[in-house]
Amino acid sequence: PNFGGEGVLTDRFKDPEQSREERNNLIYTVATFRTLFAAVKTGVLDIPPATLDIAVAIPEATPVGIDPDLFSRLMGGRSSLVRQHKMTLKTSATHCEVMPLPSEGRPEDFSGAIGQFRLEGSVAPQKVDQGDPVTLSLKLSGQGNFQALKGPQLTERQGWRTYPPAEHFESSDIFGWRGVKTFDTTMIAQQAVAATPGSSFSYFDPVATKYVTLTTKPLPLEITNATPAPTPVAAASVAGGATA
Q: Which CA distances in Å does 209 have to 99, 151, 156, 205, 214?
């Protein structure tokens, strides 16, 4: 189907789900098309009808003077002629009210994630020599706009060199609305540390209509052959003068 309108972004329709349904003592084959759409502006949006161009096979009577059995054999088993009639199916127009995200209570690390999520963290390996890489895996699971998600922000990063995370998404539905998105960050300890960085991720929950911040604590880690972290030294100022 063709679908879309001003202020609306639409994903491609998936292959239809087929079923059978009885209406007015007739059996129909039903094709159900599903997709997701996202509003890109607030206010009342007029969503135009979805349209679908089809060709309907309409049977016609056997020509006069032709034996029906002979005609059926000549037509490969069909008992009548078929004429194709082109037509366009159309749904009703709909309306959608899009509310703006609240500015009150918006966390500083909020980057546009909307849905309901859970956050888990793990590290491997858990024992390495200083200078060897480790991988911090942060998994966001639940439902929401996974395609637009940015990874959790790392906290307590002192003593670590980090690289941009590799992303991997496993969908549990045909739309990519539910699933698990993993962010694998490669890190190298620059000094003696006892734990990985922590992380923070904020999103807006449309059901609870509020912002939520998820965190993971630093994970224990053993760094061997590590150079001790430098001890902070307070700087002293000396004032001097000269007399003639």
A: 11, 22, 30, 5, 16
pLDDT for res 71: 67
Length of the chain: 244
Write out pLDDT tens, residues 147-205.
888 999 999 999 999 999 999 999 998 888 999 999 999 999 988 889 999 999 999 99
Measured in whole angstroms, how far is the alpha carbon of residue 147 from the centre of its chain?
A: 4
Burial of 116 per CB tally in 10 Å (0-12, 13-18, 19+): middle
Q: Is 212 helix (H, G, I), strand (E, B) or coil?
A: strand
- Residue 129 to residue 225: CA distance in whole angstroms: 6
pLDDT at 76: 63
- The model carries a pTM of 0.72
Give, in degrees to the nearest 5, the angle at Cα 137 between 132 and 143. Answer: 170
Taking only the tens place, the pLDDT of each residue in 83-129 is 888 999 999 988 888 889 999 999 999 999 999 999 999 999 999 88
Q: How confident is the model at residue 228 (pLDDT cuts 50, 70, 90)?
A: low
Closest listed residue to residue 30, CA positions, set 41, 19, 22 = 19
Instruction: List Cβ neighbours of 231 (8 Å cut-off, separation of 6 or more).
Output: none
Beta pairing class for 166-171 and 222-224 = unpaired
Alpha-carbon distance of 31 to 178, in angstroms, equals: 23
- Ranges assigned E (strand) in 61-113: 81-90, 94-98
